[in-house]
Specification:
The complex is a heterodimer of chains A (275) and B (349). Chain A has 275 residues and is α/β, with parallel strands linked by helices. Chain A is built from nine helices and twelve strands. In chain A, 30% of the residues lie in helices and 23% in strands. In chain A, strands 6-7-8-3-9-10 form a six-stranded mixed β-sheet, sandwiched between helices. Chain A has a two-stranded antiparallel sheet with strand order 1-2. In chain A, a hairpin with a 2-residue loop joins strand 4 and strand 5. Chain A is globular. Chain B has one domain: ABC transporter involved in vitamin B12 uptake, BtuC (Orthogonal Bundle), CATH 1.10.3470. Chain B contains 15 helices and no strands. The chains are: A alpha/beta (275), B mainly alpha (349). Chains A and B meet through helix 2 of A and helix 10 and helix 11 of B.
Chain lengths: 275, 349
């Protein structure tokens, strides 16, 4: 896919080009306003690009009926408001709409899919609770369950780790890894946390001002130069002995000295602020 | 969880059982309506009159009772059932469509348009049937008008629907006021006022030929949209990402709501609060999923209106209260009490 998207006057995305391979986990990273969420929404069919198209296999996503898209692409949004609170089970069940035929009432396969989705995300315990009685973290898991109930080929997640405590963050990443196990599905997720992105994704796409600055495995994308130019941050990038993946430690905003005393070669003594 | 038991006691009931239970209660309410009135008729006599049909009643049923039941009360009760069911379901659909628990058939302007049709017809001295017809036509037409005006860029946004519906309603309300102002005949003016307050006192069998099958068809059509309504109630972004063609669904739901409102209001006049209150009450019993909520709203609306009509007829004999007044006076305190009694559950803030 290669898309250009304009929202009003602004060019939100310019020639954003990316390929998603089966079994792949792509992380979209970049500073605020870089266009990550917009790119995700182009990929889900929610936003229509002014130029370019999004293909799933050989099908142009934006030409397909919405039901088809919902059966193939599952989206876990950052937030969701429902004006009437149904139960968790009913809410997850709505994910089956894309696969149900006219006059479709919930059949056995629908119930099974919902049950699997609840179990995978660890939400079976509160399946009957109204969705307005969930904590932020619990609701995020329910959103994931709803997307999984769609039985999609591609899962798109917008900042999936938000509001989750450490344990649930790890559990969620496990669920995502399981999702890819068959090797025929793919995940694209927007991350603010570069460490998590580096740790779990095979490929990263770095966006800045609507353009793709770098794409590829974490090693090529997460360099000190990129972090300095794009994020305006001076960081230390090490390979973690525990995970074997890159670990990113932000040290200071570029142009301002570090306030804290850092005990190694990057020591700077605490000094007054610049002007 | 203990708190869940307090919510929606019948949230797991099947739609079929809701229809059965609702039907039985509605029948009981209808029977009550047929018995009560200026001439009190015992249930046994009511049954004889109904069973006897157009032929001879059984020996114990007087001709007067026979006529009262079949020619005066039965049309009223049937009309009340249809109007109540129609408004209840229309309100339910609109609350999902607009993602707003305060939505009702008034919000889309259909009632106001019906009112304008009726008062214009009265001013022109047209017959009862033509009055019904014009109010129905204008109410339905306003539904299409709102959809056409609210459409923009191939989409039908909620906010646009609300604003357009509201404006159309205000417009027709103003035109109605103009017609009432222009009326010089006392009798006509009184008739207009009574129409706007709502009532079934003039009902005969003729309008029911359209009302009953029309309402039933629309209710069935509404049931077909149960899943779509569930998704619409989630809001635009979520409905679309889950696979709903929101524009088409919204247009269909709006037109269907306008039709139901038109059918109801053309026969009964402007009746407030049924469309607003009944869905909330239904939610408290069966939860928010529309597969159950729609039938529950239909039956609750029907039962509520039959009882309200019976009260309107019998509370201050020999005078009759306007139905719209009764629904407000009875409906609002009842609604407030139900809201207080069960603060939680159902509607998210």
């Amino acid at each position: 896919m290669r898309v250009t998207l304009r929202l009003g006057e602004r060019t939100v995305l310019q020639d954003a080009d990316l390929q998603l391979r089966a079994g792949g986990f792509l992380a979209l990273i970049g500073p605020n306003g870089a266009g990550k969420s917009s790119l995700l929404r182009c990929m889900s069919g929610a936003l229509r690009p002014q130029a370019g198209s999004v293909f799933l296999g050989t099908d142009d996503l934006h030409r397909q009926p919405r039901r088809w898209v919902a059966a193939h692409v599952g989206v876990v949004p950052q937030q969701s408001d429902a004006s009437f609170a149904c139960s968790v089970e009913e809410y997850v069940g709505m994910g089956r709409y894309g696969r149900q035929r006219l006059f479709g009432t919930s059949g056995r396969s629908d119930r099974a899919a919902v049950g699997r989705a609840l179990e995978t995300t660890g939400t079976t315990a509160f399946a009957h609770r109204p969705i307005d009685r969930l904590s932020g973290g619990e609701f995020r898991k329910v959103l994931l369950a709803q997307a999984l109930a769609q039985e999609p080929d591609v899962l798109l997640l917008d900042e999936p780790l938000q509001q989750l405590d450490l344990r649930h963050q790890l559990e969620l990443m496990d669920v995502l890894k399981d999702f890819l196990r068959s090797g025929e599905r793919a995940i694209v997720a927007v991350f603010h946390d570069l460490c998590m992105a580096a740790r779990h994704a095979d490929e990263l796409l770095l966006l800045h001002g609507g353009r793709v600055v770098a794409a590829g495995p974490p090693e090529t994308v997460l360099t000190e130069a990129h972090l300095r130019e794009v994020f305006g941050v001076q960081a230390s990038i090490r390979r973690s002995a525990d995970t074997g993946r890159l670990d990113i430690l932000p040290l200071a905003a570029v142009g301002r000295p570090a306030r804290q005393h850092i005990t190694d070669a990057h020591t700077t003594s605490p000094s007054e602020d610049g002007p | 969880m203990g708190s869940e038991a307090r919510e929606a006691p019948w949230r797991s009931a099947s739609p079929a059982s809701i229809v059965l239970a609702g039907g039985l209660v509605a029948l009981a309410a209808a029977l009550g309506g047929l018995c009560a009135g200026a001439v009190s008729v015992s249930p046994a006599h009511v049954w004889s009159a109904l069973a006897g049909g157009s032929g001879q009643g059984s020996a114990s049923v007087t001709p007067m009772e026979h006529n009262v039941v079949l020619l005066i009360r039965l049309p009223r009760v049937v009309a009340a059932l249809c109007v109540g069911a129609g408004l209840g379901v229309a309100g339910c659909m609109l609350q999902a469509l607009l993602c707003n628990p305060l939505a009702s058939p008034f919000v889309i302007g259909a009632s106001a348009a019906a009112g304008f049709g009726a008062v214009s017809s009265i001013l022109l001295g047209l017959s009862y049937v033509l009055t019904l017809g014009s109010s129905f036509a204008l109410a339905t037409g306003s539904g299409f008008l709102v959809v056409a005006l609210a459409r923009g860029g191939g989409r039908l946004p909620r906010e646009s629907l609300v604003l357009t519906g509201f404006s159309v309603g205000l417009l027709f309300g103003a035109l109605t006021g103009l017609v009432e102002y222009a009326t010089t005949e006392e009798a006509q003016l009184r008739e207009m006022v009574l129409w706007m307050l709502g009532g079934l006192w003039r009902i005969t069998w003729d309008p029911l030929i359209v009302l009953v099958p029309g309402t039933l068809l629309c209710l069935l059509a509404a049931a077909r949209f149960s899943r779509e309504l569930d998704l619409l109630a989630l809001g635009e972004d979520d409905a679309v990402r889950l696979g709903l063609d929101a524009t088409r669904a919204r247009a269909a739901v709006l037109v269907l709501s306008a039709l139901l409102t038109a059918l109801a209001v053309s026969v009964s006049g402007v009746i407030a609060f049924v469309g607003l209150v009944v869905p909330h009450l239904a939610r408290r019993f069966v939860g928010v999923t529309h597969g159950r909520l729609l039938p529950a709203s239909a039956f609750l609306g029907a039962i509520f209106l039959v009882i309200a009509d019976t009260v309107a007829r019998t509370a201050f004999l020999p005078n009759e209260l306007p139905l719209g007044v009764v629904t407000s006076l009875v409906g609002i305190p009842f609604f407030l009490w139900v809201q207080r009694a069960g603060r939680r559950g159902g509607v998210a803030a």
